[in-house]
Amino acid sequence: MHITSVATKAYPDQQFGTSGLRKRTQVFMQHYYIHNVIQSIFDSLKGFEGKTLIIGGDGRYLNSEAIQIAIKIAVANGFGTIIVGRNGWMSTPALSHLINKYEAFGGIIFTASHNPGGKDGDFGIKYDDSNGAPAPLSLTSKISERTKGIDRFWWADIPDLDLSVINEYTFDQAVVKVINPVTDYAEYMAEIFDFEAIQKLFASGFTMTFDALNGITGPYAKYIFEEQLGAAQGTVVHGKPLPDFGGCHPDPNLVYAKDLVDSMFKPETKDFAAASDGDGDRHMILAPNLFINPADSLAILTEYLELIPFYKGKMYGVARSMPTAPVVDDVAVSKKIPLYVTPTGWKFFANLLASKKVAVCGEESFGAGSFHVMEKDGIWAILAWLNIIAKTHKKPQELTYELWTQYGRTYRLRHDYEGVDSGAAQEMFKALASKLPNLTGTKMGQLQIKEAKVFTYTDPITHEKASNQGIIVTFSGNASVVFRISGTGTVGATVRMYFAKKEKELDAVPAEVLAPLILTANTLLQTKKYLGLDAPTSIT
Ligand code: G16
User: Fold this and answer.
1) Which of 363, 388, 407 is the last residue of a domain?
2) Mean per-residue pLDDT for 156-180?
């Protein structure tokens, strides 16, 4: 095997965002674009020679080519063992689990998560550290910096490998192992959850639909839900990972999983429904005629997690991201457990999970997870719901109404202004930030501002500071609005506004409850003036 140094030119746009590097697929198709990122990751790490690297992807367009490139560069850089998922497939949480299981140095996953795939869609690369967590800010900044100066990458002249069969390939000191990542993950889930209780639930006639949205979770879900837990054949729909997700947007929410949502708002429905995204870290939960939003879902998981044997006596605390409606806050008070509020980005939960400050975390963008892996985990969250339903003998809608009855119902909505001009968005935020010091006490229509501030976070473990993580304005009457610019958009900027208000009334319409708050928020941010838009491009 020959190892050569290949000259390359740096690209100026390889800045890592909320979750790795995400761009249009065609940007990644540029000459040596992928090579540069991978070598920049390795150049930013120390001490991996002879160690293990896990590589996978969510099966989207360009996945196979990217994996062959990554294998060659990893071998050339001196990794000893490279573990790859069969077909190059692996979900993000499975990658995290395999890093821990095989005590790997780290892992690379090719995914743009819930973003559409295909040649005209999106692609991405993410690096997970040796504890299976998304690379921390300090490392992603280093990688981004390195991409600006890279002028060569190391290359092993080995052939493209057949990844469709379980096999091992040896090249001098390096071995590449192709494994079935589904069975490893399924075994771990069986250790965590009471599979017997869930089997009994399905045997008693409980029905469910799981929509994999043609993303990576199809094979995991078919094996776990249908083969192991006895859910009816056909429970899993859109179960084959497709390079373009069948033209769908693999994002489990009310807009993009519309067929599934509609199927649950009919007179005759299944008892439970769920969906997951392109790389399997997000999930959505539905009950008959009810969408259980991620903030409520996190609260319910926190309330009942200790019914699952793996978590007995381990409810250390809970964390939510700042824009997530504060439903779990009440549960934390009632359970007398610590609550942490972090910036958006799963990486901010990782230290809390690893140091057992929290048992469970969740965020409004349809993510939840626990210390079982350091990534959010869609199938895990769905299994947790099934386990709780099996143990409490309560329907998902009953669990939700009980939560609301006990604490009040928090209505929430998110408005996104997608693909807007970045400069205009920055200006708009600057203008609002400059007004914040004078806003406390101001009355706006029916609402009075209690506090208005830019959110800054100091990691309680590393003391690393993350400044400028969005603006939060709280109002009297249990209402709040959060403004931030997304870190995962691939075109221009995406402005997000998150609204939340707690009410005693349980069956109101969210848009009606939140209308005054939405009006006030738009007056504060001046979306019309800066973005020229009358309405958001997406409401979820
Ligand atoms: C990533 C992060 C999440 C974040 C989401 C959306 O998720 O891991 O923590 O909430 O992006 O981020 P933003 O609001 O900045 O677009 P994923 O599932 O896309 O990897």
Assistant:
1) 407
2) 97
Q: Are residues 154 and 200 in the same domain?
A: no
Same domain as 232, residue 367? yes
Give the model's pLDDT for residue 197. Answer: 98
Q: pTM of the full predicted structure?
A: 0.95
Asked if 248 and 256 touch (Cβ cutoff 8 Å), the reply is: yes
pLDDT 10s digits, 46-64? 999 999 999 999 999 999 9
Give the pair of three-digit tokens for residue 359: 């048992």
For the domain that residue 87 is a member of, what is the CATH number?
3.40.120.10
Q: Say whether both 58 and 128 belong to one domain.
A: yes
Nearest to 34 by CA among 61, 14, 54, 55: 14
What lies within 8 Å, CB to CB, of 8 at 6+ separation is 32, 35, 36, 39, 150, 151, 152, 153
Asked whether the beta carbons of 325 and 364 are under 8 A apart, the reply is: yes
Contact call for residues 210 and 183 (beta carbons, < 8 A) = no
Q: What is the DSSP letter of 104?
A: -
Question: How far is Cα 465 from Cα 62, in angstroms, rounded to an integer?
Answer: 36
pLDDT band of 240, cuts 50, 70, 90:
very high
Instruction: Based on the fold, state whether residues 334 and 285 are members of the same structural domain.
Output: yes
Helix (H) or strand (E) holding 397: helix 396-407
The total number of structural domains in the chain stands at 3
Please say which residue of 179, 205, 238 terminates a domain.
179
Which residues does the annotation mark as catalytic? 113
Nearest CA owner, ligand 1 atom 4: 345
Among the listed residues 226, 185, 210, the one whose alpha carbon sits nearest the alpha carbon of residue 90: 185
Could you identify the atom of ligand 1 that is nearest to the CA of residue 489?
Answer: 16
Specify whether 344 is located in the same domain as 256.
yes
CA atoms within 13 A on the CB side of 135: 26
Average pLDDT of every residue of the chain: 96
Distance 30 CA to ligand 1 centre (A): 25
Nearest ligand 1 atom to the CA of 364 is 10
Cα 295 from Cα 326, distance rounded (Å) = 7
Question: Tens of pLDDT along 257-315?
Answer: 999 999 999 999 999 999 999 999 999 999 999 999 999 999 999 999 999 999 999 99
**Ligand 1: nearest atom to the Cα of 134:** 8
Shared domain for 122 and 208, answered yes or no, is no
Kindly state whether residues 134 and 11 are assigned to the same domain: yes
The range of the structural domain enclosing residue 112 comes to 3-179
Same domain assignment for residues 395 and 474: no
Distance of CA 316 to the CA centre of its chain: 22
As beta bridge partners, residue 139 has none
Does ligand 1 come within 6 angstroms of the Cβ of 344? yes
**Does the Cβ of 487 fall within 6 Å of ligand 1?**
yes
Is the CB of residue 256 below 6 angstroms from any atom belonging to ligand 1? no
